Amino acid sequence: MxxxxxxITKPGKEILRLYNEFNYKDKKKRIGKFRTRxxxxxxxxxxxxxxxxxxxxxxxxxxxxxxxEELYVDKEFRNKKIGRTLVQxxxxxxKKLKVSxxxxxxNRRNKxxxxxxxxxxxxxxxxxxxxxxxx
Length: 135
Fold this sequence. Notes:
This protein is an alpha+beta fold. The chain is built from four helices and seven strands. Helix content is 28%, strand content 36%.
């Protein structure tokens, strides 16, 4: 299986299709509000979009942070390192932007997502947040 990652600036029909599978009712309104500080990568296999990651670059006072807002991989393409690759590509982008930390939240019951982020280097804190600290 050959996978290709590409940075995108505006969501296409395939991203909206996956976003819809991700159970958001008002997807067009929410995903359509792209800001210049948003990072979006899509994963394609054989020209089919099979996953995406949405992240935000946040300036806060004297520091900047990254926040992974959404990560989704089509059910047929899970357990093929696509999610892990999307997360790593996003972390590399945040590193270039010199953020001090990257945050993500997961549902407490979503053990697979938690394991994915832990394997990527995120550390769980007392809240439902996972944090990735650049050292």
